[in-house]
Amino acid sequence: MPAKVTIANNGPIRIEGEFTIHDAEGNMFTFPGRTRISLCRCGLSENKPFCDGKHKTGFQSACPARELPPPPPNPTT
Ligand code: FES
């Protein structure tokens, strides 16, 4: 199943399906036994990049689905 990413209202970014997560050096995070993962979107987690529930202290953000405009032209291509 391809990855499905859900932006939770007032909460994390949830990812389920087939995906991998890597750090800036390309090392892969492992999370055996989990079929979905939540990434912190509020900045308060003490277990970044993963959500630890701290968003429940008052983080508010709703992001309804919408279409992004095309990227600006790249002057180098
Ligand atoms: S989104 Fe849950 S701790 Fe940040």
List the helices and strands and how they pair.
Layout: E1 4-7, E2 13-16, E3 36-39
Antiparallel strand pairs: 1-2, 2-3
Bound molecules: FE2/S2 (inorganic) cluster.
FE2/S2 (inorganic) cluster binds next to loops.
Give a brief rundown of this model.
The chain has 77 residues and is mainly beta. It is built from no helices and three strands.
Textual characterization of the structure:
It is a single chain. The chain is mostly beta strands and 77 residues long. The chain is 0% helix and 16% strand. A three-stranded antiparallel beta sheet has the order 1-2-3, with no helix packed on it. Strand 1 (4-7) and strand 2 (13-16) form a beta hairpin. The protein is globular, with a radius of gyration of 15 Å. The mean pLDDT is 95. Residues 11-12, 40-42, 44-45, 51-55 line the site of FE2/S2 (inorganic) cluster.
Tell me the distance between the termini.
34 Å
The helix/strand class is mainly beta
Strand count, sense and barrel status of the largest sheet are: 3 strands, antiparallel
Biggest sheet: strand arrangement? 1-2-3
For the structure shown, list the relevant keywords:
three-stranded antiparallel sheet, globular, mainly beta, 77 residues, binds FE2/S2 (inorganic) cluster
